Sequence to fold (253 residues):
Amino acid sequence: MDTAFDLASVGVPQLVLIGLVAFAASIFGGLAGYGTGLVLPVFLAPVVGVANLIPVMAVGMSINNGSRVAAFWRHVSWPHARRVLWLGLPACLAGAYGYTLLPARWVALAIGIFLIASVPLRRLLKRADVQLGARGVAVGGAGFGFINGGMTGAGLLLIALLMAAGVQGAALIATDAIVSLIMGAAKIALFGGAARLDTQLALAGLLIGACTAPGAFVARWLLERIPARVHTAFMEVVVMLGGLGFVWRFTGS
Fold:
């Protein structure tokens, strides 16, 4: 895959656009409880390139998840986190390695299909009343880890998995954050070792991560004023259109 990217060559208007989109995406994620990793790639891919998207997102989302870990550290459900990571972490590394082998056009197709599928998948998971024990969490963690390794926006799967295991409230936010942070760090290490994450891409990821931080506070303010169905429907439209855009990139390559 062609991974050439020079942050210095990106104009100031594009840098501002990246920051604004990251900020807006974090608001969407804060409003719906997930979605930053689904919305942001739609706008980020034209700037950093499809081939660089997952490594850059790994850095940016690690900062986002790290801030949540710091805020909710004492609420982490470590038994559930360990169960998810037991099979999920090696599966995540396998998925990330598989990503490094794909040509850019196939990356675009994979991301596009996942974004489009995420809308009906979210609704299906919301309706499902599944209860999971320790073994079910471990097996589910493996599936989530593999998808998360080579994809962005898989957080809705982890949220559904933890809720099915009985994790709720602040513990849900904290456990989701620590699992995502550990997997994100593993992906960063693998991408760096595979020469898929250089200094320029890491800086782009840091910029994105820094811009997502204030979004949570804006989301909290908006939640008090916007009906849940309105912001959820808006985000679904953005994600679906973005997914179609990635598929179009594949057909046009």
Remarks:
- The first helix runs from residue 12 to 32.
- The two ends are 13 Å apart (CA to CA).
- The chain has a mean pLDDT of 80.
